[in-house]
Structure formats: structure tokens, C-alpha cells
Amino acid sequence: MALAAGLAQPFPIWGGGPWDGLPVRWRGGAGGLPGIRSDGRRFTGSRLPGWDRAGGGNPNWDNSQAVVNNLEDAHEQIDTAISTALKESKPVYISISCNLPSIPHPTFSRHPVPFFLSPKLSNQMTLEAAVETAAAFLNKSVKPVLVGGPKMRVAKACEAFVELADACGYPVAAMPSAKGLVPEHHSRFIGTYWGAVSTPFCAEIVESADAYLFAGPIFNDYSSVGYSLLLKKEKAIIVQPDRVVIGNGPAFGCVLMKDFLHALGTRLKKNTAAYDNYSRIFVPQGEPLSSAPGEPLRVNVLFKHVQKMLSGNSAVIAETGDSWFNCQKLKLPEGCGYEFQMQYGSIGWSVGATLGYAQAAKDKRVISFIGDGSFQVTAQEVSTMLRWEQNNIIFLINNGGYTIEVEIHDGPYNIIKNWNYTGVVEAFHNGEGKCYTAKVRTEEELKKAIEASLGPNKDSLCFIEVIVHKDDTSKELLEWGSRVSAANSRPPNPQ
């Protein structure tokens, strides 16, 4: 829900709640999402040995913890935790003894008190120095480029990034986990920069540039394709939410990303050289051929039809796995939402994310792409989607196992027990609410299922099980998997 609304607050029951919430807190911590993780605890006089260590607040997972055992400082503790979540864009944990909420206390007003946060500000002298140095660095370059990263969301700098792109004339790319943050309808958008598995012609332009500005990047083993990016530190300006590093130095702290990008746009000379090079070498991609009657459905044919479904009223959620790569190739219309995560590689995260996103963004129809192995981890969330009458479209891609793991480290553990997935969803439905399910094995069946989802079942939860061959993967997964596997199997580095 924090993905769409900017803030989420799960409040589970006492006991299982803290453990159930760990993936939520890991996701928030890894992705820079504010979340207020609350639960009830035993009444104030209780002493349960070991409980405070059993999945409660932990400084490694939460930016702030509040354990409320009395009302004297409850208001202060709760406000401090909420403020920390909003200011740091990280998860916090609040645990409240179960006998306290019904007891009145003068610090809790009958009427809500407006919540106010002191704004973060840039140091103006440091900001000016950073902008002056960066402008000199970029203005002397021949073919500079801009690349947007996922931390632009935390920094609330997406608009400032677009302003900079409009002003400077550089080609604009997005890191994989920033897809959806950089508008793909921009006149100089060249696609996803992801090393060897980038959008065609994008990596060639980025890596051949003599200067590149990365706004809010995260470079990990997944986003760097096993640390194989052909980037040079001395050519880079790295802009983080409150820090700017130019080449091998200098570094400027206390500089907010949005302030820096906004000011930089007024100092740069227009330079379209890199985009002109891109225009000269660019060749439009082809389209998969239609299947013969009765021919088994191919994944690339599936996504050809998905592309036609998208609009500004859609939001795409891509599960960990081959959906990463297939969804990256979708061209997002203006206003179309997009979410996926690769900072901690959680398998199954997208089922709960679909539930939360749809609940927060009621003006969009969520279209999710989930592998069979991932779905088995968190399938029960579909029951809650039905309860809240959501009209999500879920494409369950059934290829018999964890295909992405096969490409990284193959083994029998990547083969899973097959389910009757539509049957599972129909059992959740149980005749209550609106639900449409379909199994598709051919292109003809897929087209009928899509038409039914967009037509007579547009207000229903639509679950389409797409049965494909176990080896039907994107070429990007094959390349990425080989490189990440090689990086993971390097010999130990003695410390």
C-alpha cells in the first residue's frame, strides 16, 4: 500500500503479528518505503519471557521502535515513531499493551491534532558549490546522459529530474527499479539501463558517454548484473537524496536531490549529442509472430497482448523472476503505474503488493504478473482481494517451478508441486463476490480471456493461469542469470 499511497500501517493480531510483519519491514527498509508497523502486546502487568525478542522491534529492521506500556509518554512515543517513518522514509515499529487503548488520557485529544513535520532544507552554500562544480563537469563533456534511479521516489525528486531532462537535452534512461518513475513518453527517453540486459541501444549510449548523472541509484548484484556494468567512477555524478558526489571527488553533503536537480537545470548548456547518436543507430524492435492455431502459447506472445491492455488507468506489478525482464520491456503509457522490487529479491512479494496497491489506488486497475512458485508463497492474499471487491487482473505464469533460480543455481529444489491454480482461487471465491478465472494454453484462449477481463468482467477479480513451457524464458534472463551466477560463485576473498 505504501507504494501507491506513500504510507502504510498494518495492524495484525498479537502473537503471530510481529513475525508476519517481518517481510513488510524488510521490504520497506530495502525500498525506502515509510511504514508504521503496529501490533498489540500483552497487558501492562504481564511478563512473557523472551517475547520482546520474538519478532518485535529490531534496530536492524526498523528505524524507530516504540513499546508502549503506560499512557504517560505514549503520545510522545507514538508521534516520534510516526515522524521518523515520514522523515526517513523507512519502517518503524509500535507495540501497544492491549489494555491501554480504552483508557482515556489528557494527552490524547478528543479531536485530531494536525501533524506537522519540520521540512528538510539544503545548506545553501553547499548547494551552490555542488551545482557550480557539477555544471562545469557536464558543460565540458561531449555526450552526457541522465539516468534515473529508485531513490528519486524517496527524495520526491521525480519532477525535478524531468525538469532537468527538459532543460539539458541529454538522453534519459531509467535503472530497472526506477521504471515508472521516469516518464516513458518523454521525447528523449531511451529505455532501461541494466548493463548487458538493457533496452536495445540504451547501454551502448550510456556506457559510451563521457559523463553520466545518476539520480538516486542503487548498485547491487542484481541491478549491476553481477557487477558487470561498464561504468567509470571518474565520469559519474552520483546524486543521492541528500548528497552529491562528482567523479572521484569532491562530495557535497546536506544537499537535497530535488534542490540540486532543479538548480542544475538552470546552469547547463543544451547538448543533444548523445541523443543524436542514439537516433542514428536506433532500429525499432519487431513484434512476435502470431501463433498457429492450437500452437502452445509463448511468453513473448502473452506480453504482446498485455502491451495492448495498458493505459493511463492501469498499474503493472511484476513479481521476482522472469516477469522482471518481460515487464521491463513493456512501454508504459502516460499515467500508468509500475512497481517491482529487486533490492532484496523477495519471492512472493507481489501478491500482497497487488492487494495493497489496489486498495490505495482505487482509480487504477492493477495488472500483476506472478510466477507459480512465487504465488504458492502468498496465495492467501487473493482471498482478501475478493473480500474487498478488487478488480485486479492477475496473470499466473505456470512454468512448473522457479525459473529464475534455475538460471542462477539449478537443482531439484527449483521444481515445485503443481497446483490447480484457478481451482485455488475459485475455492477462495466460494460463491461470494465477483470473480473470473481462466486457464489458457494457446493464443486464441488468451485473447478470449483478456476480452472477458476487459469486457463483461471489468468489475471482477480476474485470474488468468497462463500455462507455458518450463524453458520459455526471456533472453535477458538467460544473460542476467549467467552473470549473476558467475558473480555468486567467485572464490572467497580472504579478509
UniProtKB/TrEMBL annotation:
The record's GO molecular-function terms, alphabetically, read: magnesium ion binding; pyruvate decarboxylase activity; thiamine pyrophosphate binding
Regarding protein family, the annotation reads:
Belongs to the TPP enzyme family.
| Organism expressing this protein natively | Triticum urartu
Residues holding Mg(2+)? 372, 399, 401
> Catalytic activity, per the record?
a 2-oxocarboxylate + H(+) = an aldehyde + CO2
Please list which residues make up the signal peptide: none
Q: Which Gene3D superfamilies match?
A: 3.40.50.970, TPP-binding domain
Annotated Gene Ontology cellular component terms: cytosol
Arranged from A to Z, the UniProt key words for this protein are: Decarboxylase, Lyase, Magnesium, Metal-binding, Pyruvate, Thiamine pyrophosphate
Q: What is this protein called?
A: pyruvate decarboxylase
Task: Give me any GO biological process, just one.
Answer: aromatic amino acid family catabolic process to alcohol via Ehrlich pathway
Q: Cofactor(s) for this protein?
A: Mg(2+); thiamine diphosphate; a metal cation
Q: Which Pfam families match?
A: TPP_enzyme_C, TPP_enzyme_M
Record carries keyword Metal-binding: yes
Record-annotated membrane-spanning stretches? none
CC cofactor note:
Binds 1 Mg(2+) per subunit.
